[in-house]
Structure prediction request, 253 residues.
Amino acid sequence: MMLAVALLPMAGMAQSDDFGTILSIEGTKKIDKKLSVGAEVEMRTRDDVKTVDRWSATVGASYKLLSWLKVSARYTFLYDNNERISYFDSDDGKVQRGIVNIGDPKKCGQYWGTRHRFDVSFTGSHKIGKVELSLRERWQYTYRPEYTVDERWSYYEQGWDGEEHVYNGKGKNVLRSRLMAEYKTKGFPITPYVSAETFNAWKLEKMRFYVGADYKINKQNEFSLFYGYQTVHDDSDLEPNRHFVGLAYKVKF
Prediction:
């Protein structure tokens, strides 16, 4: 039943959707009964796994305020493989002369750049039988520094334009809301789960749906295997709908 609910939004997905992978290693250390610290490194791919999308490194801490409520704070350094495309608009001379149409791709800048991300989360959980439900509300701020590329690819000229172009620095606030259900059986090493997450920045931008399972090897080591689908509602960042599979290794010190 849980699997059917998770896969329902994925019905009717277009063949043009992208496919990628997510690989990560995470370590956590429990300081006391309430406080934990941790770090994670991650690599993502896109373009049907042909292109490395980004690398990231995260450090953070979490604190259990109540038996059912946890707060956490993190910093993430992201190193992105960017592909920034501009499009012809109504003010362009080529559009006015009828050479190209509004919305046709104009130029593309490709470069590796950095981003800095900070987030604070509150996670509440409640158990009903063997099913644990949790709701996580996360405020996320990401800053992309200014970056200058030497040249961009011109779709109209079918060549590099040979001109510098500056991408201005930009900050962005996002509210991420995630509902998760986990099926936990005492003494059984596998915990299946499903989740749905929304990304809001004054309006709904995208959603992600996951179905997966954690496999506990022992008290210190665990693997997580999952499948996900991302559907984009705001294409301002030119991010496509995407399928992805992921594998995570988690270790406790």
In short: The first helix runs from residue 2 to 7. The chain is about 5% helix and 65% strand. Helices lie at 2-7, 93-96.
